[in-house]
Please model this.
Amino acid sequence: MKKAFLLFLVLIITCVTITGCKDSSNNTSSSSGASNSSNTITSSSSKNANVGMIRDLSVDLKRKYSIPNSDSNVLEVVSKADEVYQNDLKKLISVSDDVIRGTIQNVSYTSYEGVAWTKSDVLITDTFKGNLKKGDVISVFTLGGYIPLSEHIKGHNDAFRFKDLSAKKIKTTFLKETIDGEKPIKKSDDLILCVVKTPKDSPLPKGAYERVSYSGQLYAESNKEFVQTITDSSHKTVKTYSYDDIKKMTE
Model:
């Protein structure tokens, strides 16, 4: 009887040890581990693990463009953003309505008044500033993306710039508008974003959010490090912040 009891005790200790090792490896994972479900993700942080959608605050698009297929003609246009506080994360945070950490659920392309925009639906896994909550899904708009050339011409009245293209060619041509030095947002990206509510006079949908600056978009390298990229003329500067660094800036 004593031997049986000791064997039972050893089995319990072994099970606890194995379970503890498994949890530890999950907590130190460097990826966000986004699932294919639109409602549930698993974050690399133990605090953010298994965050599911609680409130859907995302917005719909009147027009939505897909990435052009191989039959379409694509012209790439590179622009330079005018950013007032592009070198100062603390100032970016101070002018933001909300500072959030989230996982990109979907990426869509649209346009307003001839300008290309990218809409990213973000599931919030942590909050640093503002009224948004963990579990909210919001739509964040950033400049750039794909737009039919015909829509661009309609908004800018600049058909003269494309006089070498026939009317038929214009109908099958897309512009890919990118901001110099910016890395495009992709599904499953784990980001910290500085955002503002879309102003009432904006052509963007009511209830949407806009990213304050590309410098206010930090990529999670691990659960403890977030990388900011600053583009200034031909120079690119990369800065790394800890979770606590960002937390202190929002206090």
User: Anything to note?
Assistant: The two ends are 61 Å apart (CA to CA). The first strand starts at residue 40 and ends at 41. Residues 13 and 225 are 35 Å apart (CA to CA).
